[in-house]
Amino acid sequence: MPLNAIPPTTTIAGLTEKVKAAQGQCWVDVGFYGGIIPGNHGELKALVEAGVRGFKGFLIESGARALTRLQVDEFPAVSATDIQRAMAELADQPTTLMFHAEMIPPISDSVGDDVQISLPPLAPTGPLDVYSTFLASRPSSFETYAIAEILSLAHLAPKLPLHIVHLSAMEAVPLLRKARAQGIKVTAETCPHYLSLTAEGVARGDTRHKCCPPIRTQSNQDALWSELLQYSTSGVIQTVVSDHSPCTPDLKLLPSHVFGSSSSCSPSSSSSSVPFTLPRDNQDNDNSPESLPEIGDFFSAWGGISSVGLSLPILWTELSRRNLTSPSSDRAITDVVRWCCINTAAQIGLEFVKGDLAVGFDGDLCVFDDEAEWTVEPSTMLFRNKCSPYQGRRMRGMVRETWVRGRKVFERNGENGGFGAGAKAGGRLLLEKRQKRQASV
């Protein structure tokens, strides 16, 4: 992600700082996405030259600043004009232009240029700790309108691959299918949480489930699965990615009875937790108790699901639940490899070195126990802040080992947290310029 860390990867200076911080700290190979924000179009070609693999932009404020206290001021939303400028810069570049596709539809045909910049989500119409209130504030129309806006500009850079990140709304699928049939180079991804969690299952105040776009209904999830399973023919959803967006437990504003709340976390599981603070523009004006965010408030809590080390078990568990795995067929594991490895590598121009096992490839693999059954709990969550909606859930399938370029870098239950006694991080930073060759997805 080009944001969720300061500085964002929207300038060469920001990329340089991130590369410096990452040196010697990565256990796996790591590439970088850049960001598009208003006014940075002049930086984009230089970022491609510096090795950025693709670019991401938001069509809605990434922090929804008008209705939440968690702002991302350094990564504002782009307008249609900003997208046009980015497309002009990147039209012939070896890259992919990606979008967080949410945007408020116009309320009439006469709103003029105001609709070119997305407004905040709709004002809540119910209790802020009830998930249905939050879900109603970000309806599927936000996604369909944003995608329609992106597709309307595709003719400006017909050779430039476009990609919709973390697609949530099944209503967007017909738009994307039509665009692909017309020759527009567009793909979409979805995430394990959209394929395994449902709005009906979110308890009151359980903000571990908050993300944007939001987790939707069971029927929506079923439709996403139906589309995903058609990836090899006409399906538009080609990849499944974690969209891991971690935070310290206090930022989720969880009630004390919910697993993962600040009060229920042990010091060892939330050692990096910091007190919740208001953004600077509010600190000087109002620190009264009534101005502070409410516990369990879906609108003020940090948005994002922590699942980076759980994605493969989540997918396998859901495939098993849907009776899509079979001892007599390798179809399920082949699908997972395509969604999570082969197609994702192609999306960022690494299809000749990553994502597959073949002569000349890097030899990255994991040893996956497809029959293991286990429960997600702090001891089995391998990310730092143990706050996840999957806590307490039974999983089927477990990653036992991880190998990078033919070298074992992780073994579950091994020494030194699985990384081996005396081992050093040997992951490479993938900073070679992306080449124009690209497999079709």
**Global outline:** globular
Q: Which strand order spans the largest sheet, edge to edge or round the barrel?
A: 1-2-3-4-5-6
Which runs of at least 5 residues are low in confidence (pLDDT < 50)? 64-70, 108-116, 265-289
Number of helices: 11
The percent range for helix content is 10-25%
Strand content: 5-15%
Rg over CA atoms, rounded to whole Å, is: 21 Å
Q: Could you tell me the number of beta strands?
A: 9
Mean pLDDT: 86
Structural class, by secondary structure, is: alpha/beta
Described by strand count, sense and barrel closure, the largest sheet is:
6 strands, parallel
Kindly, what is the distance between the CA atoms of the first and last residues, rounded to a whole number of angstroms? 21 Å
What string, H for helix and E for strand, traces the elements in order? HEHEHEHHEHEHHEHHHEEE
